[in-house]
Amino acid sequence: xxxxxxxxxxxxxxxxxxxxxxxxxxxxxxxxxxxxxxxxxxxxxxxxxxxxxxxxxxxxxxxxxxxxxxxxxxxxxxxxxxxxxxxxxxxxxxxxxxxxxxxxxxxxxxxxxxxxxxxxxxxxxxxxxxxxxxxxxxxxxxxxxxxxxxxxxxxxxxxxxxxxxxxxxxxxxxxxxxxxxxxxxxxxxxxxxxxxxxxxxxxxxxxxxxxxxxxxxxxxxxxxxxxxxxxxxxxxxxxxxxxxxxxxxxxxxxxxxxxxxxxxxxxxxxxxxxxxxxxxxxxxxxxxxxxxxxxxxxxxxxxxxxxxxxxxxxxxxxxxxxxxxxxxxxxxxxxxxxxxxxxxx
Length: 345
Hints:
The structure is a single chain. By secondary structure, the protein is an alpha/beta fold. The protein is built from 12 helices and 8 strands. The chain has helices at residues 47-60, 74-88, 111-122, 156-162, 164-176, 191-199, 219-228, 259-268, 272-283, 294-301, 310-317, 331-334; strands spanning 40-41, 64-66, 96-101, 127-132, 181-187, 207-211, 231-235, 286-287. Helix 8 packs across helix 9 (272-283). It is globular. The model is unreliable at 1-33 (pLDDT under 50).
């Protein structure tokens, strides 16, 4: 069952953003979390240069770093944060750090252990935001996927026995009451899974991180989050530029070579990447592009000086009418049905 009849949702009003002080937080009453809208992602960054690029990102002006246990580089990211803070002359309280609970620590007795390990690896006393990375867990001992996952296609009597992720969330709620984490949220949840968390918990997720780009805009899903007062962070803002996404026949063109983005970039004297990012933070609440190259992270940061007009944003909104593609969907790997009820599930 979906949270709402999406046909009744009003279209999202898109405002044009210009140049901003990066440390200016979101101030919309719809968004409960002061997340800098341009962040730096660390997925797929090799530990060998993670410290260097994270430090460079902070020195370039980024004040939002997105991490995860599953990325396998949090120790190096932590060293980069420490070095970047020192060289940029900023304090820990000036930046926003997000990390994520991995699937093998969904057992409520293991949740605090996972948070403590993340804080140790990053060299931090607290996280600004901690997310449940996926709505499905696996066994720490065997690595096998378990059905601790809500599947709306199963009988209610069975669901009642397997909604383990609720217990995981409740364990995260308890840690939210400590000084170890300021906000908690989710990532990659379906409408039914989000509704289940909200209906059966005291704490509503502050943030939902999900795949969003011009090939997967998820506009109605984002608007529903805003109605609930939940912020949305867009990962993979450059879509199929991520080398993790193996090309398959019928895929849309490389996003940064898309004709519409290139035409807008030429008209506005920006790069295609900058255009994609400006659309992204207009469309959601924050975006977290990643890069292993200092030159690219600086180019991305330059999006703050890229000015798009309303007609540019509307043109980009229309891209998904021709190309609609979700690139990150490990349903087959996990053996569960993810993103049920969402675009290109």
